[in-house]
Amino acid sequence: MKEFIVYIVVFTLIISCSSKSVDVNNNVVANANVQFVIDGMTCEIGCANRIEEKIAKMNGVSTSSVDFESKLATISFNDETITGDEIKSMVESLNDNQYHIKETVNNSDVDSDSHNENSTDDLNQVVSGSGFELPNILDFFTNII
Fold first, then answer.
1. In this structure, are residues 61 and 87 in contact, taking their beta carbons and an 8 Å threshold?
2. Residue 125 belongs to a domain
3. Whether 115 contacts 76, CB under 8 Å
């Protein structure tokens, strides 16, 4: 019986760890993008995926992608319906204010070449400046449940 439960848990983790971009609001015409670095995430499944899904469900958001390893969230939205600050506020209010936005980059007209170069440099500074932290095991299991 214990082996069966272990197999189910491992299988669930393998399936849920796939990287994806949530695209819930197909009818929203995105005219702006925002990227920000999120501190406070302890796991990919419970934190990054939850943030990604919550942002994607917001009115005016076209796509949402949160990369746990780089702590980078990328959101396409309609700036006539919602603002980047509203998205930021929603993320920071999740899970009893566990998450903090370190850096925000707004792009009204998306210019991917210059934007990717700048955000990569900024991201490298953030990642290299942060030390390794062990995740809080209690938060990990709470987020899974």
1. yes
2. no
3. no
